[in-house]
What we know:
about 230 residues; alpha+beta; Cytidine Deaminase, domain 2; five-stranded mixed β-sheet; elongated; disordered N terminus
Amino acid sequence: MNSYNSHALTTWAVEERPREKVIINGVQYLSDSELIAILLGSGTKNVTAVELARSILKGAGNSLQLLGRQGIGDLVRIKGVGPAKAITLLAAIELGRRRAGMQHPEKIPVKSSETVFNLFYPLMGDLQHEEFWLLMLNRANRVVGRYKVSQGGLSGTVIDTRIILKKALDNLASSIIVCHNHPSGNNQPSDADVKITEKLKKAAEMLEIKLLDHLIIADKSYFSFADEGLII
């Protein structure tokens, strides 16, 4: 049986082959659709991988940020995208997300809520579920550790103050900052957010650990309890 695909990357004209463009010019010169085409490897009987990649981008509003929020179910709805191609794309997106979050925060002095936002946005900015993270600082306000406390669903996640404080004690933290995301895009704190902040602040004080801030990240914006005078 002949399984040759007439739309595989190797059958295109040289000037249309993304892989050859990488060799000649470098990967940074490829368009978003060409990068996705390399991940796809091939198109279908009637469309090239680049054309299929354009359809994928169009389905995400031509936004890589929105593409990062899609799951397997969203991708396989596109004609020509099966589970294998969808999983390859999701794996590449996750690698990019992890690379963006793999800074060396211990080298960064935390001076403002914006610094905290820049540390956590790559990790949580485009998630479709809630995550709650802990940032631990020494006396010089330099990061000594970063830890994911919990992961939940679309509308919330369970927070255990004991886990947070144990982790802070294990890392000899002098102060802590907590951060979570709102997949809804609304950065305003809920009643539950306010209550957990107050509870955590009081519990931390008993251990001589100061809660400096609680950030809520939603899309490209954030809410800071400290900036709003809700943590004194």
